[in-house]
Amino acid sequence: MKGTNLLIASMAIALAAMAGCARESANGAPPPPTDPVVTVVHPQRGEIVRTLDLPGDAVGMYETALHAKVTGYLKSISVDKGDWVKRGQVLAVIEVPELHSNLAQAQARLEIQRVTYQRLRRVQQSDPRLVSQEDVDMAFAKYQEAQAAVQTLQTMVDYTQVVAPFDGVITGRFADPGALIRAGGGDFGVNETSGLVSPGATEGAGGHRTGGGPILTIADISELRIYLYVPEQDYPYIQRGMPATLRFDEFPGRVFHAQVARYANSLDLSTRTMLVEIDMPNPGHKVYPRSYAHVTLDLVRHQNALQVPSAAVHGSGDTARVWIVRDGKLALVPVTTGISKGNVVEITSGLNDDSLVVEPYSNTLSAGEKIRTSMAANSAATTVSSAD
């Protein structure tokens, strides 16, 4: 009985094995592949731009502080902050009575010198023995001296009127009628980021308290200068006419287009940056001086550039490298990169349009390893065997 049972068991095992082989033969399926699969992409061509984002400060195309050339009391002032004025318009008048008196006195001396010179000249022409030529020449010199004195005083009288040097808007008023205005002004200047006002030019309820400062400040804002400071590594790319886009927080979603107008051709010693100016048209005077600008400069623009995903590249410049699939095997090839923009990078040498680039780059791969590829979503979504 024992021998019979062993024989039955052996026959059952043999039949089961034969049945399994029959099923495998019927299906005809090969064993599962063992080669690893990597995702690959073809390089794409298109425009790529190297940009530089910097903060900028907006100022008027022209900005100036209007000081007095003569000392006197402010007789009248016809403008205030926010008023638009035209070039040559009288903005304020300074009262200097003694100046008018001095002018009248100089005009009287001029008349005396004129009469004296003309009389001596007539006598000398009628009878040279009565008046020498030297006396006539001296009289003529004194007459010219008196003319110059009158012209000087007349110019000073003209300075009692403060006029607008250009079309613009009044941005500050620092004096009221009756205030003492001192000639020469005070310690006041306007730079690219702020107005620096002397203590004597402080405006309050009483207007110009102590004198010595400007009477008014004026700015032309029909066009703005945008000041920005370019780092040392980027200044070689700066050129006149370079396109720039500007954005202001006050105008969300709005983009202003302008160009680089000028630059310093020198670096600031303390910051190692170069001052660059952009002239921005300002129709409607929407943007005000001292506004903060977000500036984007297009430093370099390459058309039809060969690009791959940044994740596929290890390193940069002429030390970069990528994995590619060639004849079903992995190969590590050196490449040279150019402009890097977001999630893509320009390849200037080492690849062509038909290259199969592995994405992302991985240190776990080995050169010469057999591989299967799967095209990325932006390429044909097919999977091919390394044998194909």
Question: Can you give me a brief rundown of this structure?
Answer:
The protein contains three helices and 23 strands. The chain has about 400 residues and is an alpha+beta fold. A hairpin with a 2-residue loop joins strand 19 and strand 20 (about 345-350).
Notable features of this structure?
alpha+beta, disordered C terminus, conserved putative lor/sdh protein from methanococcus maripaludis s2 fold, Helix Hairpins, six-stranded antiparallel β-barrel, four-stranded mixed β-sheet, 4 domains
Describe it:
The protein has four domains: 37-49 and 304-384, conserved putative lor/sdh protein from methanococcus maripaludis s2 fold, CATH 2.40.420.20; 68-91 and 166-214, no CATH class; 97-158, Helix Hairpins (Orthogonal Bundle); 222-302, Elongation Factor Tu (Ef-tu), domain 3 (Beta Barrel). It is 21% helix and 40% strand. The chain has helices at 2-27, 97-126, 133-158; strands at residues 37-41, 44-66, 72-77, 84-85, 90-95, 161-163, 168-173, 180-181, 189-190, 195-196, 203-204, 207-208, 216-231, 243-248, 256-267, 273-281, 292-309, 320-326, 329-341, 344-349, 357-358, 372-375, 383-384. The strands form five sheets. The chain has a six-stranded antiparallel beta barrel with strand order 2-13-16-15-14-17. A four-stranded mixed β-sheet has the order 21-1-22-23, with no helix packed on it. The longest helix has 30 residues, at 97-126. Mean pLDDT is 82; it is low at 21-26, 186-210 and 379-388.
